[in-house]
Amino acid sequence: MTGIPIKTFYESDQATWSYQSTHVDGASRFITVSGLLALTNAEFSLLEYRDLDWNNVDGQIPKYVAISHTWNSSPEVIKLSTIANRPLHIDMGEGSPSTISWHGLRQAALAARYLGCELLWLDFICVHQNSLDDKKLQIPNMGNIYKNATAVIVMPGGVSAAQDFEIETEWATRAWTVQEAALCPNTYVLGMDYVWLLKRKADDYLWIETSAWPGYQDFTYIEDSLALADIRGILNHLQGVIHIEVTNRKTGEVVRKGTWELKCLGDGAVVWAFAALLLAKTPAMRQVGVWRSLWLRKSKYPQDTVYSMMHLLGVEIEVDYNRSREDLIAEVVRKTSTSFPSWLDIMEHGAPRELRQRLFPTIPTFDVQQIPIFTVEKQPVPVEKYILTQTYMKIFNIKVLIPAAASADNGGLVCTEIFEIQNSRDNETLVINGHGEAYHWNLSNADSTHVMLMGAEDFIIPTNAFIQHLAAYEIKKSKSGAWECFPGHGGVPKEFVGKTRRSHLRIGGSPGSKITECDCADGD
Length: 524
Known about the structure:
Elements: E1 4-10, E2 16-17, E3 28-32, E4 43-49, E5 64-69, H1 75-84, E6 87-90, E7 98-101, H2 102-114, E8 119-121, H3 123-126, H4 132-138, H5 142-147, E9 151-155, H6 177-182, E10 187-192, H7 196-200, E11 205-210, E12 220-223, E13 226-230, H8 231-235, E14 241-248, E15 254-261, H9 269-278, H10 283-296, H11 304-307, H12 325-336, E16 373-376, E17 379-382, E18 391-396, E19 399-402, E20 412-416, E21 418-424, E22 427-431, E23 438-440, E24 450-459, E25 469-477, E26 483-493, E27 503-507, E28 516-517
Parallel strand pairs: 2-6, 5-8, 5-9, 9-10
Antiparallel strand pairs: 1-4, 3-4, 3-8, 6-7, 10-13, 11-14, 12-13, 14-15, 16-17, 18-24, 19-20, 20-27, 21-22, 21-24, 22-23, 24-25, 25-26, 27-28
Helix pairs in contact: 9-10
């Protein structure tokens, strides 16, 4: 299949990029690489593939690299692109154009050529940013664009320039970057490495390093210090901080001394959630990474926090910006709860709970391009404070028979093993229903009366530590008589499990639900 050139654009014209009437809404478009490689007077052609069927792609799709980036450039990228002084203005239909850089596009083109591709996909240009009709048709294809790319390159500080791998960015906080980096198995970060390149020049530099954790250092150099790094390798080294000292052998000058660590994807809970997704060894691990990301990321439109992740959850929802984010989340919960109810595994102890159902985590407050927050005691608190990070639920013992959807009031009916907490002198003791086997339990809520089994935990990034118990939530009746749940401090010993029958219980919703033994077998 051959693309139709619909426009050739030249750096020398110094014009603003805009679409012409020759384009077809919803068609797939790609940027040619060869002309971008010039250091001055670059150019590119936009090719349009009008009959490309993303449901039947065998043999149809040209080899291309898709770019993942943040629309708002980091301070470092702004500085680098200003020095390069090769602005590229793009008509966004919002009164004034957005400006990126031919310099950054050249770096992306160098990476594409290295990866064996002669075409690039970049949303700024390949999606008609000034056409609602084109956007409506393109958004459902975003997952296909990244999944079918030969490779994806991440430019975490923005597409205007590749920045140092050590400099922290907000890339991981953006909603759409989750699927952009997760759907393609060949995903790389494009950046500048000024440190590890010196280690390769052993004749010129003396290198000394001390570290308990090895940092990522498997860079593939494209041009000078411009390098590609495998994104999964980076995530496997989130705890890697290296103390280094580099000395020029000829002059004796210490050219670098201090710590080195990878911050290019960002930091904190949002990156750990992303690691859970990309390093997933089980479907449950993958799902929990997506759900935690949905709670942590920001976007221009509230609905995009859902649309950007629905493909990763195996859910298809019609794009409709008239629906609320809460309604969309409720639909995703209904469509995923029977297989992997990973939305149960978002928050840690002490997090706000959804008041109507208690089983469902509170949906954060959304503001345009702002970090999600909860309001706790009338004060804004970043959601990140409550998100679980280094552990996840690898096996769910609990089954959700009727999901606690975000917009419903009837709570959620669960099936799991439920154990009673009995006070024994000064300690709380977990007692399996009538079997008399006791285990000390540290209460997280003073009024909790029972513990319900959730499942087996594991670590996101493997360590020498291991977990010998199964995760559980404490439960109690509220003043109105409805059941509430709280993530607990402790866990149920594995040897306790399976010695009692499973039970049904409605969490949240109408008062009066009772713990009722059932005949459900584990795994049914």
